[in-house]
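Consider today's protein:

***
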Amino acid sequence: MIELIPNINVLAQLQCHFSDPDLSKLHTLQSLWSGYGEIARYISPRLNNTFIVKQILPPLKQAEQVHPRGWNTQTGHQRKLQSYQIEANFYRDYASICDEYCLVPKLLAEFSENQQQILVLQDLDQAGFSLRKEKASIADVILGIKWLAYFHVRFLQQDSDDLWPVGTYWHLATRQEELEVMQAGKLKDAAQALDSTLNNAQFQTLVHGDAKLANFCFPDDNSLGHLAAVDFQYVGRGVGVKDLVYFLGACLNQQDLAKHEQTLLDEYFLQFQKALHQYQIDMDFIHLQHEWRSLYAIAWADFYRFLLGWSPGHYKINSYMQTQTDNALASLYNLFREK
C-alpha cells in the first residue's frame, strides 16, 4: 500500500471553482507513472460539461515509489516533481498560442499545495478527439508528423525560462545515473559529444519531449486532418528531430523505419515549410533543414544512449536504431577530425 501525502479535497475545490455542488467524478482514466497520482474525468451538470483532472500526489517516502524498472531514486523523484511543475507552466503560459494545427487541451484551472498539484484541463474527447491508437498506419504517422512540424514552427527560437532548458525525458543532464550503469563502449564515450551537438545547434524550438503514440488524440472525424496532443511534462528547448525520432520509433518497426525513412523525413520538412507560411515566419528554412537533417542520426544515438542505461533489453532497440547510431558516431568522428 502506497502512503500518499494527505490530499487536497479535489471534489470540494472543483465544486467551489465551478460553482456546481453537483459536480462529481465519473471515473479514473489512468494512474500516473510510479504511483504519483491519477488522471480522472469529472462532470459538471450545471455547465453540461466534462473535464480532465490531473492530480499529482507524490508518495510520502522514496521507498514507496513503484517504478516499473526499479529506478526509485531521489534524483528520479525530483525530476518527476519538476516535470509536473513544468507541465503546469506550459499549459498556463505557452499553450494558448497552439492552434488547430497543433492542438493541446486548454487549462481551465489549477490548484497546488506543498508538493500536490491539480491541473483541470479541457476534455479532448468531448472536443471531438476521442480516438487513441495502439498501432499506427503510415497515414496516422503522417498526421503525427504534421502536428510536430506545426508545433515546432509555432515555438521556433522561443524563450522558455520556465520550461526544461533541454527538452525530452531522456536528455543527458537528467540521466547521469543511467549513463553510469551503461556498458563501456563508443556510445558511452560519445554521450557528452552527442548531447552537446544537439544542444548547441543554431536552430532551436520547443520539443514536446515525450511524443509517443499514446500521447496523441485522433479526431472522431477522419476528414479533419489534425491531431491533439497531451502530456507536456518534458517540454523544453531542443531541435525538432528529437521529437521526430522518438515518434517514429514509437510507431514503426525496424523494417518500416528503414523503408519509409526518407519519405517521412521529407514529409516533416514539407509540413514545417507549410507551417512557416501559415504563421508568416520569415527564416532561413534551407539552413535549418540542412542542420536538422544532419542531426537525425545524432538524435537516434542520443535516445539509444538512454535506453542502454535505463533498460538495455528494451523492445524499442533494433537494428535501425543501431545503424543510425553507427552513422552518428562516424559523423562525430569526422567532425572532430576536421577540427
Summary: The chain has two domains: 10-122, 138-338. The domain at 138-338 is CATH 3.90.1200 (Aminoglycoside 3'-phosphotransferase; Chain: A, domain 2). Confidence is low (pLDDT under 50) at residues 1-5. Strands lie at 24-31, 37-44, 49-56, 107-113, 116-122, 205-207, 216-217, 228-229, 236-238.
